[in-house]
Design goal:
By secondary structure, the chain is an alpha+beta fold. It has helices spanning 19-30, 64-72, 76-82, 120-133, 197-201, 271-279, 282-294, 298-309, 312-328, 385-405, 413-440, 446-461, 463-473; strands spanning 2-3, 9-15, 36-40, 59-62, 85-87, 89-94, 100-104, 115-119, 138-142, 146-153, 162-163, 172-177, 181-190, 206-223, 242-248, 251-257, 262-269, 341-345, 351-360, 364-365, 368-370, 376-377. The longest helix has 28 residues, at 413-440. Mean pLDDT is 84; it is low at 227-237 and 328-333.
Length: 476
Amino acid sequence: MTAFPTSKVYHTIVVGGGLVGSALACALGTQRAGTVAMLDFASKAIEAPALRNEYSNRCTAIIPSSVSFFQQCGVWDKVHAQRAYPVTTMQVWDGCSDGHIRLDTKGFGDVNYLTQMVENDVLQHAMNIRLEECKPDVDVLRGCKVKGFEYRRRDSTGGFSEVATESTVSSCVAVMLEDGREILGSLVVGADGPKSAIKASGNFTETGWAYDQSAVVGTIDVVPTDDAWGDGGKGHNGANATAWQRFLPTGPVALLPLSDTVSSLVWSTTAAEARRLVALPPDDFTNELNHVLNCPSSEFLAARDADIRDNPLALGVSQVLKRMRSTVDENFASDLPKPPMALSVRERSRASFPLALANADMYVRPRVALAGDAAHKVHPLAGQGLNLGLGDARELASTIAKSHELGLDVGDIHALMAYERTRQRAVLPVMAATDFFKRVFSTSDPIVVAARSLGVTGTNALGPLKQEILRMAMNN
């Protein structure tokens, strides 16, 4: 095999040039945490997005802690120079009941947004610009199809051709490419997605399961409607600053603002229904979207009420929970603010992808770490997937920088274990919560519906509790 570059052993090799891998490379370059090679599968960097009135259907809700991370990495100013749209309020409501919760930034000091909506292409382009600025500490190697890695130790000539049978006696790792090249480094980070070659090569096991759902995404032209926020729905910056999410028995449907008149759609539903929705004529799709966002809960309650009447226990529990809910919030049945009216779905913007939950049982091994979707994957209902990956990048960059500053081996397992502990404490509660909400809100069982309606309405009425939940969601 031919080594490439021939004589260089990097401190860190980042496998994966997507959003998490690029963020990690930017952070390492900004902190001057040794030499970095980022291996990108793509043969060339994405071009600057067309920012006129065209919007990508791949968007992310960037929470304040992720914005802060991007600012520290020298990336956010480049994002903002393109476009990002702040979300200042959010409404979540149950399709099968009157339960709802309204969220805003009151009580959060200088933070005047819940999330910043950014297209993934905008994020990627901004990080590509920053990576160019990080040269020569960061090398970006494109067109790299990774097969896996193996441990190496120094041979008699001073090179690293000898395979180490034990990871604990290794001097470095060799990342092997399909074209025969090798890249050497003290640490390799798998940020190459759920089907990670690094995860497979390192024999990492994972726990998880596929959901019986797919997510339909699209770009929607909207007309914002007057609502009950007291400002006509304008929030801080325009006529469309509220994120909307309604839980239906088949899954949540969310409209997330991208501009005053454009929103991003994420509609989770059954796999068969997702295929049907993607194939619908545009006008029929828009009509169905408006219907599920605005139809009265009575459409879902009719079947539920029939179930209750046939079940004395369910009838009794439902009545008790309804009285409790009325006590918690006497206005729970009042009219809710109305979401925007969908005018049309942008041409070729609809797509769908299957949903799943997965978590690597370990995030690190000697000289190896996983980050982003290679380490964990969650349901999109809370918009936390990429934010968790960015939290990985922030923590791992800090861990590597500390080791490098102290003159230690950045691939040392003891330092990497600290990264694993910190990130699992952050990731596992989010995974559990999203899985719980997916299951609880994907049923029309009358007792469950009544109980969850009480819980949501009670949380909405208890300001301090609602603030604490929101505070946790705004930090990754």
